[in-house]
Amino acid sequence: MILRNTGLRRCTYRLLSTKNKELESSTNTNHAISTKQLLYTTDPSSPGSIFFLPHGTRVLNKLIQFMKNQQIKYGFQEVVTPLIFKTKLWQKSGHWENYKDDMFKVVGNDLSKEEHHGENIEEHEYGLKPMNCPSHCMIYAKFDRSYNELPVRYSDFSSLHRNEASGALSGLTRVRRFHQDDGHIFCNMEQVDQEIKNTINLIKDTYDVFGINKIEYYLSTRPEEKFIGDVETWDNAENKLKKVLNEATGEGNWTIREGDGAFYGPKIDVLLTDAFQKKHQVGTIQLDFQLPKRFDLKYVAEDGTRDNQPILIHRAVFGSLERFFAILLDHYQGKWPFWINPRQAVIIPVNESHITHAIDLQKVISGDIVNTEKSISPLTGFNFHVDVDKRPETVGYRTKDAIQRGYSYIIIIGDKDIANGTFAIRSRDDRKVFNKTSNEIYEQFVELEKSYK
User: Active site residue: 4, 95, 145, 314, which one?
Assistant: First the structure.
């Protein structure tokens, strides 16, 4: 969905050139933290693709689940769409003409050996999807639509592929395979303002959860060369976005990027500044009159007319989840807040005689007590990542190691704790120890997750 045209790509490369040392330092920092916390890895067999390890996958899944919960409030319905489509779809959408050099091509098995050497190879050539908008247009077009259904909002978290130049690849921030909190809204002209305002509000609220409050907005306008549609339509769309930006962020609180729009419409790019004053492009809002026309999307209006074309809004809040993951690594320096921490708590038994009690405690405070009659875990509920460190090392050594690994809470269990039914718990950043029951610890964890602390 987020499309980087030629103009924006040149701008990005200039940014990479001027900020090369800073980006290299950031990538090295991310790699060092990931290595220590076992978050992700890469391999030359698939350049630009990330292997998320178990702990990194926990963080990624938390980000996705967080956004799924927010999108429900705004009326989005999640869909899952195919990874590859035939060339003719990308020709219909305009991506083949304007974006094919940045797409991965695949030849399907429906091509015979004879045809392979003929002229009809394009009929059997596929493209790995670099964005979800065409497939969401296809879903919209499968059914008759009425004005009272609008806005129709689809979200999609399936993986995307873009054939980035190898020299542009950089850690998590610039990859070839990535995930995105992708969303598309089909609405009428009267609904555009509110939908964009809703997205800007969600952007503000989301970044605030992570303690990132410095946000910059840019309006990217019609590219000089590669664009589809007529100039008048583009001008109307750009004026619409200017009006909404003034209302949602305040006049003068955004900047124009001339010629950096997507080939199908103007867009609002969102840049945030993290705790180390580094800027990152993340969210986007794009207004599109072209794809609904190319896919002949219609709806029945209140007066019964059937030849009414919806407007398409492309939007993302995190943008690339891989890039946002990298931003959070920099932002927190491995000290994850409890709710998103892949290592939320560790229990340290004083010696071997306490291990059984430690495992029992683990089941309670992780929310993972299994009913003896039913071994299937419930579909919903609060579950936490709690480990037991059974190594034959001193308590001091294991405590220090737990702090270095980034556990949010450390719980010590010994004879006195077992006798009293309370356990010594301390946070990663505070040496103060509290004695709490297993249920009190669990309720504390529930409250931390509820409040995104």
Answer: 314
